[in-house]
Amino acid sequence: MIVGTPRATSKRFADPADFTPFFERRAGELHCERVPLERIAARLGTPAYVYSRAAITATYRRLDRAFAGPGGVPHTICYSVKANSNLSILRLLARLGSGFDIVSGGELHRLRRAGVSPKTIVFSGVGKTREEICDALRAGILLFNVESAAELEILAAEAARLRRPAAAGIRVNPDVEAGGHPHISTGHHRHKFGMDWDDARRLYLAHKDSRWIRWQGISAHIGSQILSAAPFRSAIARLAAYVRELRRAGVALKYLDFGGGIGVRYAAEDPLEVRNYAAIVTRALRPLGCHLLLEPGRVIVGQAGVLLMRVLYTKTNHGKTFVVVDAAMNDMIRPALYGAVHPITVAGALRPRTVASRGPSSSRADIVGPVCETGDCFLQDWPLGEVNSGDLLVLWGAGAYGFVAASNYNSRPRPPEVLVEGSRFRLIRRRESFQDLCRGEL
Ligand code: LLP
Fold first, then answer.
1. From CA 326, how far away is CA 136, in angstroms rounded?
2. pLDDT averaged over the chain?
3. For position 348, what pLDDT does the model report?
4. Are the CB atoms for 394 and 344 separated by under 8 Å?
């Protein structure tokens, strides 16, 4: 199901520069930390993803601190690699002390390339292959979050074959409704994720004294972009009850993995404060004495990134204004896929006009990319203001589920990724070339 392109409401959107940490306007010109975005665009071209190291660091630390201290619980943040898996971002988070949550052999490979210790890795996902399971067993990861009886069979068989006991937990489906959009809600009983409690309990008990399966944890991830406390509160209460029930039955678990899901502000959302989220989780967890694992993705990197693009052309069809930009749905799929609203604003500094323009656009416009799909529209009827060909635009909130979901559709090379560090910036992924596009083809 494709949800329609986001449409601006009559409500005025706040300028994300006013609420996005480490991005600000100075003398009208948008900066990431101390670097003008125009400087990056001039050097590396557009489209381009730009991330702030300070923003990622600050959010990671804020989350970590919220669970530390006297009121806290022993915990490990296992950053969800799928949100942004660039090697430099993974290294940065590893240096900050983060663990990692993976869902594929490819993500495990990235972490090893980044030099991360496998002892901090949890492996979730409904469809782990035998090969992926073996690789992770050999690597000696912290925890397998098992999602079916069939998967557990394979895990036990491979653990026995390799003579390496598997540290495992079951991902349960706590049956709560959560998540900003049907595609990213995962914790309800009709979803494919996790297992019903009755089945999970049966497996825990059946393999209680297994030589090759060592029950160490229980996990749940109820959805993504969750903005309210209620779903987290119900889910953690259920998990705590499961841990107690298992303990009474003689299965003592060390880890409770509460997944990710904390929402962020893209436009007008009012997300949960990290410390309120932490209070809900720690209150339920402290009496249990478990070690808490968290798998946040979006909250750590989401607001730390933007996608730079330039205006190619403006045009008017039947009185409607279109701003055609050089980024497209292949670079950033969230608006087309989820109807996600990522505000777009002008970066400030105007470039000399290099592309023929049909004059300034009117103040409201559809912002569209070059891909041959009507759905290739970032925003409809958006109050962008007057722009001209060559102007630099910024799509906000692009740090999570941005580049990682980019494709080569329409044979468009994927954009570069750039990390800003104070007054410097560096390329952390090159723009793809036409040669890259055909690599592996015969
Ligand atoms: N743990 C598990 C098992 C997950 O499936 C996910 C996300 C996370 C952790 C991280 O969730 P977060 O903290 O980022 O909400 N592409 C979608 C989001 C898909 C999320 C999938 N699972 C989007 O662009 O909104």
1. 40
2. 93
3. 87
4. yes
* Count of structural domains within the chain: 2
The answer to whether position 74 is within a domain reads: no
Nearest-angstrom CA–CA distance, 168 and 222: 19
Is residue 244 located within the same domain as residue 388?
no
Q: Which atom of ligand 1 is closest in space to residue 297's alpha carbon?
A: 14
Residue 7 lies in a domain: no
Over pLDDT 70: what percentage of the chain? 91
Q: Is the CB of 207 under 6 A from ligand 1?
A: no
152-156, 183-187, 201-205: which has the minimum mean pLDDT? 183-187
Answer yes or no: is pLDDT of 330 > 50: yes
Six-digit token pair at 244?
A: 């107690």
Calculate mean pLDDT across residues 113-136: 97
SS3 302: helix
Instruction: Extract the tokens encoding 261.
Output: 């899901």
Q: Which atom number of ligand 1 is nearest to the Cα of residue 302? A: 14
The domain that contains 311 carries what CATH number?
A: 2.40.37.10
Q: DSSP H helical segments within 141-229, as ranges?
A: 149-162, 197-206
Task: Please tell me the distance from the alpha carbon of residue 289 to that of residue 253, in angstroms, as a whole number.
Answer: 10
In order, the DSSP letters of 106-137 are HHHHHHHHTT--GGGEEE--TT--HHHHHHHH
